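input
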Amino acid sequence: MSALPARSRGVRGITLDAAGLPLSGLLGTPPGAAPRATVLALHGGGMSAAYFDGQAHPDQSLFTLGMRLGYQVLALDRPGYGASAGPLPQGQTLAAQARTVRAALTRFAADHPVGAGVFVLAHSYGGKLALTCAAGPALPGPLLGLDISGCGHRFAVPAAQLPSAAGHGHWRHNWGALRLYPPDTFRGCADMVTAMPVRERVEAGRWPDAFVRLAARVRVPTRLTFAEHEAWWRHDEAALAELRAHLCGAEPLVVERQADAGHNISLGWSARTYHLRALAFLEQCLARRAAAAPAPRQAAA
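output
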């Protein structure tokens, strides 16, 4: 049985200086052209940047699709993962992660063109970080919008089943049915699954209250996707109506469900469908931004 490729063609490792902390990740740039925009990808708890470059099927990788459409894709190992796991053995709180990611992105933007701005595509715990970043000081870019999967505001499981010192939580909540994923998924995911830092586990149960404090300060276009078989978060109509009410400043706000998908949506059979829809939302953000720009002044006759 042959080994799966380590990463997609054109994707390379990168380490950024985030105010003295090394933040590792993966970078893919469109060949032969300046990027139209930069997609900043933030992984979930107990994963790594490789989550966005799945190798179990050719259609899985966000990088391959994003580069083909002219986007630069930067997937970071969140603070406490990858190169920063040593300096941050317990990880960081969401507020501290937001400061670290902002510093890393500032360093990145100083050395790399980012195109029209930065679009954050985030999964699960990374979605919490995306919302925390959007509610705080401006990211370099500017921030074009957010696309978040696998992150809600009301847990669908009791507190005793949330991630703890014993592990990431129940396997079925993280993945769902095996049929939702290509056969090689679990052969290739060993390198992307890792320990969840203790500060994340401790803070996880506080998210419903934190979300309420943050949500009204989010003022950028936002799209939320819940997998059909999402098990961590409530996504019934009552919960989604409450979620929309809290995100009252996000314009536009789009909430969707992805059929035939489990929580780890970017590793499943529906990964390409989800990524296409996410990047279509980015296209919408770019068009909206262009339409709002002042018209060029006509030269005098």
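quick obs: Residues 19 and 197 are 20 Å apart (CA to CA).
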